[in-house]
């Protein structure tokens, strides 16, 4: 039985036969479903000819080419190989929201990608060696924005699926969580060295960067609740600091940095309809010392 069929069946059984009575049960159900989802390697998501990403099959992997234009109009091109074994190993890993975030920050491929970005060709007047940090940041964000947004059901057939950095790069697409993890993975690497966070809104996620780590050009960017991080949308091309007009439920960086329990309580029934979101907030709440 294929991965998506196992996952669908597991979630259907959970919905029909198990009452949602505690956060622990929700977490266990989702962990079990994720374990089933990682039972066998998958094939990369097809790339549309209209996408800005191209993929060529090689003897031992995938030759990826990314082309994009950043917010200042600079055109970028980056060629990046990924081993087939690395993609399959990544697809075999089962991740929840928090573990997916931590895995992205330590991804070897995110580190390689960031190093490749520094050497990537731009068609502007600057040479790679002279690019200031603010332009490199724009380039990283532009790369993430250039990948096609696709819901999990569209791209994998599963109701919810956490892609690793490697999967997102090879698939050339992802939803808000996948794209957030990719940007977080890049900006957490030594080339940037930013303190990063995942920012959870109702039905949405974006990246957070510690305000003290951003280049001077973004010194005036508005901060998220809590005043520590600046939000960066990964699924839409909004300016740094601007994001979807909904309450920030939680910010998770090096542990829980901010959590709005009243807003979470107000969501009540909506979260019970989506155990994956509820688990994310519940896990974050459990780690916060009160």
Structural class given helices, strands, pairing? Answer: alpha+beta
Poorly predicted parts: 1-41
Distance between the termini: 45 Å
| Main sheet makeup | 5 strands, antiparallel
Question: Count of DSSP helices?
Answer: 11
SSE string, helices as H and strands as E? HHEEEHHHEHEHHEHEEEEEHH
Give the overall form. globular
* Secondary structure: helix percent: 40-55%
How does this model look, in words?
Helix content is 42%, strand content 19%. Helix 3 crosses helix 8 and helix 5 crosses helix 9. It contains eleven helices and eleven strands. It has 290 residues and is α+β, with helices and mostly antiparallel strands. The termini are far apart. Mean pLDDT is 80; it is low at 1-41. Strands 9-8-7-10-11 form a five-stranded antiparallel beta sheet, with helices on one face. It has helices at residues 3-17, 23-37, 84-92, 97-105, 108-119, 133-146, 152-155, 165-171, 176-187, 261-272, 275-287, and strands at residues 53-57, 61-69, 75-83, 121-122, 148-149, 173-174, 196-201, 204-210, 229-232, 250-253, 255-259.
């Amino acid at each position: 039985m294929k991965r998506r069929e196992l996952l669908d069946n597991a979630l259907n059984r959970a919905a029909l036969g198990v009452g949602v009575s505690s956060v622990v049960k929700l977490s266990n159900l989702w962990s079990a479903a994720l374990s089933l989802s990682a039972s066998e390697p998958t094939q990369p998501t097809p790339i549309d000819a209209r996408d800005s990403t191209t993929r060529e099959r090689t003897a031992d992997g995938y030759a990826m080419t990314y082309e994009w234009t950043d917010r200042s109009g600079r055109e970028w091109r980056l060629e990046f190989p990924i081993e087939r074994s690395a993609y399959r190993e990544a697809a075999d890993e089962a991740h929840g929201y928090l573990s997916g975030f931590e895995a992205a920050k330590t991804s070897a491929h995110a580190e390689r990608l960031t190093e490749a970005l520094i050497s990537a060709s731009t068609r502007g007047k600057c040479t790679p060696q002279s690019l200031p940090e603010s332009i490199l940041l724009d380039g990283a964000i532009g790369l993430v924005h250039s990948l096609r947004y696709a819901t999990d059901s569209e791209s994998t057939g599963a109701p919810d699926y956490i892609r690793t950095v490697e999967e997102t790069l090879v698939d050339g697409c992802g939803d808000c969580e996948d794209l957030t993890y990719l940007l977080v993975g890049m900006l957490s690497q030594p080339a940037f060295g930013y303190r990063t966070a995942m920012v959870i809104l109702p039905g949405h996620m974006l990246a957070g960067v510690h305000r003290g780590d951003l280049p001077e050009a973004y010194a005036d960017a508005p901060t998220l609740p809590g005043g520590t991080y600046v939000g960066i949308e990964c699924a839409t091309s909004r300016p740094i600091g601007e994001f979807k007009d909904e309450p920030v439920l939680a910010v998770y960086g090096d542990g829980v940095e901010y959590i709005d329990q009243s807003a979470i309580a107000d969501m009540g029934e909506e979260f019970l309809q989506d155990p994956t979101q509820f688990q994310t907030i519940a896990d974050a709440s459990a780690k916060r010392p009160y």
